[in-house]
Write a structure and sequence with these properties.
Number of helices of chain B: 18
Strand content of chain B: under 5%
Distance between the termini of chain A: 53 Å
Distance between the termini of chain B: 56 Å
Structural class of chain B: mainly alpha
CATH architecture of the largest domain in chain A: 3-Layer(aba) Sandwich
Shape of chain B: globular
Oligomer: heterodimer
Largest sheet of chain B: none
Shape of chain A: globular
Low-confidence stretches of chain A: none
Radius of gyration of chain B: 23 Å
CATH topology of the largest domain in chain A: Rossmann fold
Largest sheet of chain A: 6 strands, mixed
Mean pLDDT of chain B: 92
Low-confidence stretches of chain B: none
Radius of gyration of chain A: 21 Å
Mean pLDDT of chain A: 94
Number of domains of chain B: 3
CATH class of the largest domain in chain A: Alpha Beta
Helix content of chain B: 55-70%
Order of helices and strands of chain B: HHHHHHHHHHHHHHHHHH
Structural class of chain A: alpha/beta
Largest interface: A-B, 72 and 44 residues
Number of strands of chain B: 0
Number of helices of chain A: 14
């Protein structure tokens, strides 16, 4: 079989062996959770509970502050202890609701609607919106927004992203093996909501059993196709995945809906299924606790807001000296100052690396070796953007692709001078936004 | 939770490829070792001595300048060593020992450090050093060349096949065949008065044509390929250079675009225009042009220098074609027998312009 892929990209070691063979296990209800009000792109949610209030598992505790925002629900039962600043998985401090468990673990009543696919589109969408679902691959775009394309942008294809191209992470992989039927149902719901005729599930070749299982499940579905993809980073980046699967290019500055495509993570599809069928809010997700420093790497089904430190402890703690704790994958994830962060709906993994990996490398002069140019999946000139930002030439930076960068980190990965290209590009994006505001 | 205070916070990505600058430079040096071994085998210890003198001079100069500039001394990265090595590779084995010293010092000081060191030089320092030597001591650079023992300088060994008897070979013609480099022979035979002269002395036979044809005989090409000719230290054996080039391509240290389009352009143009005026071409002519002179050394090891060549993929193709075109123009109609180094220097200067004109369109961006 010829594997599909995109132009450019890199081949980092996939390092999935730490946690790939660990089936999903349940993380026992923790003593406390920290539910962030910014788990998504858009306005932070508005709290609807107060300090000292008792909440049930699944109860709405913060509501969306507009269309591009999200509902948040209690993921355990207990007492609201504090609404204040807590460490966010991106490494910054951010407002969150802290709940201390009362060990009752009582949950709001759930329904079961076995004929959920017959429900009208409005109801489906409403249930998704109520459940507070956002993209669970990391970016965290509110799902109900993504599923509401304008009338003039008809959608014909829905792609489920089961690529999981970030090294180490295995949460999507284990979820596909455990809940293939539910994920497929989620895909059908999404297809119905956006009116798409075709469904696709993109999976990288390093997960052959997931590909085989999904293919088996889709054998009788003539509208749904499993797409095996080459192992190449960033295969799971939205634009790259769409190109590999459909040969369509998302126009620069545009969204996938412009070319009739909607992409959703497999985890999101699972959450959509649960939200539509049982009206279950998104209060837990699968997270990989992995890396060479974790005693027993695991894939845990954990309540949203669980503390990374508790999750690590459940995995037997740390072996050796911890150098770096990365929330997300090592290519695009955030290095945390401590493990006291509460996981969010976008937390697909926590990777613990040793001192060796954490050694910071000095930036050298650019050799102009063009390795970054050769591998850039967006066909940009990363070193030129970085240099232009360094010397304050924003026009040149834009010409070299500042605004088209998806920040996948491939350029910095290959740079022999260890230039922190992504950081320079980030700086450039901020300066450019400032300059635009002044105009 | 132990080690809470030891966690390192840094921007993504948190994984990194193992290739570093020293890594790249020393790999290129390694890839040039076969050529150095061949030169040492042919010419003995002196080839090695001249080469190492150039390399060590470059390293010492870089260290001194960096000390004076009060910047970190980075000679361990191998880039100065490589520059000195390449400079010496452009000198012939009969040259005095001070030639590589002066050349390497000029290459590092004026060619590299004046502009701010590694990554900032506009043209290839080794080639600039060579151009400096050529302009300052042209006789030292072009005379006193030594052929490989037992072989003619031009690679044409089979004299009886050129002339029926040696009397037909006037001293001029004999000199040409035995003591000019292959490209020197090709160049001289483009001089019509010289041609008329030797043909007349040979009794009216087409001696010049016979000499020219023997340049592309398998016998001569073999000598060119293995290095049984006269030449600069580093460029003598096509085989040794190709060996090193294959290693660098395999290791992904050099790209294929510049060498392919450089050599490809030379191939096509030398086939079309490489013959003597008035006579036809031969499919072996391109091989003569590729295996002789500094083309392989230039195309694989100097035109691929990162800093002085275009960043864009299209730009690298333009660069290669430009180098090939200029090389052939100089070899066929210019004033020198060989044009590789000046072609690359000229295209180095064009690099910023080429980059500007060949900026890639971002994925998903439509052409305006």
């Amino acid at each position: 079989m010829r594997l599909k892929t995109f132009p450019g990209g890199i081949h980092p070691p996939d390092e999935k062996h730490y946690s790939a063979s660990a089936p999903i296990s349940n993380f026992p209800t923790p003593k406390r959770v920290i539910i962030h009000l910014s788990q998504h792109i858009g306005a932070p949610s508005t709290p609807v509970v107060e300090k000292g209030e008792r909440v049930q598992k699944g109860q709405l505790i913060a509501k969306a502050s507009g269309f591009v925002s999200l509902n948040q629900h209690a993921s355990i039962s207990g007492m609201v202890n504090k609404i204040g600043n807590f460490l966010h998985p991106t490494g910054a401090m951010s407002t969150a609701i802290e709940i201390i468990s009362d060990d009752q673990n009582d949950m709001i009543a759930l329904d079961d609607d076995p004929k959920y696919l017959d429900l009208p589109v409005d109801v489906l969408k409403e249930r998704i919106e109520n459940a507070g679902i956002c993209g669970m691959g990391g970016a965290g775009f509110p799902t109900h927004v993504k599923l509401s394309p304008p009338e003039d942008k008809p959608i014909d294809t829905v792609i489920l992203n089961g690529v999981e191209c970030e090294p180490y992470l295995t949460s999507d992989y284990r979820l596909m093996l455990r809940n293939s039927d539910e994920i497929l149902s989620g895909l059908k719901i999404i297809m119905k909501v956006v009116g798409a005729k075709k469904g696709m599930i993109g999976i990288e070749e390093n997960k052959p059993d997931a590909i085989a299982l999904m293919q088996k499940r889709c054998a009788k579905e003539k509208d749904i196709e499993v797409v095996a993809l080459k192992m190449q980073y960033p295969q799971g980046a939205e634009k790259q995945l769409i190109y590999a699967a459909t040969n369509r290019k998302v126009p620069a500055g545009g969204l996938p809906m412009a070319i009739g495509v909607v992409v959703q993570n497999v985890g999101t599809a699972f959450a959509i299924y649960e939200a539509v069928r049982y009206q279950k809010p998104l209060i837990d997700r699968v997270i990989s606790i992995t890396g060479p420093m974790v005693k027993t790497p695991m894939n845990l089904l954990a309540p949203i807001g669980s503390l990374y430190s508790d999750l690590v402890e459940h995995c037997g703690g740390i072996t050796g000296t911890l150098g770096k704790a990365i929330s997300g994958g090592p290519m695009m994830g955030f290095a945390l100052p401590s493990l006291e962060a509460g996981m969010t709906k976008g937390s697909s993994g926590l990777v613990l690396l040793g001192e060796e990996a954490a050694r910071s490398m000095a930036e050298h002069t650019c050799l102009r070796c063009a390795r970054c140019v050769d591998i850039c999946p967006m066909n940009l000139m990363p070193s030129m953007i970085a240099n232009s930002v360094k010397y304050d030439d924003l026009d040149m930076a834009v010409q070299a692709g500042l605004n088209d960068c998806i920040k996948c980190g491939s350029c910095a990965y290959v740079c022999p001078a260890q230039i922190r290209i992504v950081q320079w590009i980030d700086t450039g994006k901020i300066r450019y936004a400032e300059a635009q505001r002044k105009k | 939770m132990n080690s809470k205070d030891k966690l390192i916070v840094s921007p993504a990505p948190h994984m990194h490829d193992k290739t570093t600058i020293p890594n790249i430079m020393w790999h290129v040096v390694l890839a040039l070792v076969p050529a150095l071994l061949f030169a040492t085998y042919y010419w003995g210890f002196r080839a090695l001595l001249l080469t190492l003198t150039g390399a060590v001079t470059a390293v010492v100069c870089e260290a001194i300048i960096q000390k004076l500039r009060k910047v970190p001394i980075t000679v361990h990265d191998g880039s100065a060593f490589l520059t000195g090595l390449l400079l010496a590779f452009n000198i012939h084995v009969g040259a005095p020992i001070w030639l590589p010293i002066v050349g390497a010092a000029f290459a590092i000081i004026v060619g590299k450090q004046v502009f701010g060191g590694l990554g900032n030089n506009p043209v290839n320092p080794a080639l600039l050093g060579r151009a400096f030597l050529m302009a300052s001591w042209p006789t030292r650079m072009t005379s006193g060349w030594v052929a490989v023992k037992g072989f003619a300088m031009s690679g044409i060994n089979n004299l009886p096949r050129i002339a029926n008897n040696l009397q037909e070979l006037s001293p001029k013609a004999y000199d040409l065949v035995t003591s000019a480099t292959p490209l020197g022979v090709a160049k001289t035979l483009r001089d019509s008065s010289f041609v008329a002269d030797i043909n007349a002395q040979a009794g009216g036979i087409d001696l010049s044509g016979r000499i020219f044809n023997s340049l592309t005989e398998m016998e001569t090409l073999k000598n060119l390929f293995w290095g049984n000719i006269g030449g600069c230290i580093g460029e003598v054996s096509a085989f040794a250079l190709l060996l090193g080039a294959a290693y660098l391509l395999y290791k992904n240290i050099i790209g294929w675009r510049i060498p392919l389009f450089y050599i490809g352009t030379v191939f096509v143009l030398s086939f079309l225009f490489g013959g003597l005026p008035g006579s036809g071409s031969s499919i072996l002519l391109p091989f003569f042009h590729i295996f002789s002179g500094g083309l392989l050394l230039g195309a694989f090891f100097m035109a691929t220098d990162y800093t002085t060549t275009p960043l864009t993929k299209k730009g690298r193709i333009v660069f290669g074609i430009g180098c090939g075109l200029l090389t052939i123009v100089i070899r066929l109609v210019g004033g020198y027998p060989e044009g590789v180094s000046y072609s690359i220097l000229f295209m180095n200067v064009m690099t910023p312009l080429i980059d500007r004109l060949t900026m890639p369109k971002a994925f998903g961006r439509v052409k305006k």
